Amino acid sequence: MSQLVNLLPIVGLVLIFWLLILRPAQKRQKEMRALQASLTPGDEVLLGSGLIGTLRSLDDDRAQIEVAPGVHVTVVRGSIAARTTATLDGPADTARPEDV
What we know:
It is found in: Cell membrane. This protein is α+β, with helices and mostly antiparallel strands. The protein is 37% helix and 28% strand. The longest helix is centred in the first third of the chain and has 37 residues, at 2-38. It is rod-shaped, with a radius of gyration of 20 Å. The termini are far apart.
């Protein structure tokens, strides 16, 4: 019984660590995977570096982003952080960067 009481603080710390650190990180990772899967050419996207552009094409691990008329940048697909405006068919997924 005494040994069980001694383990309770350790179990409590592990539970708190899981609730405050691991669970939110898993949730963010799941949301990012859903965003990556839902991207389509024509979406306006925000890259992790802060660049905003229009998605022109997608490959398995790369994306072609148009940052200015006629200026295309190839980036790793995982660097796309958010969809910034509505596509031609539907509402926006996130707020515009200037609203944040």
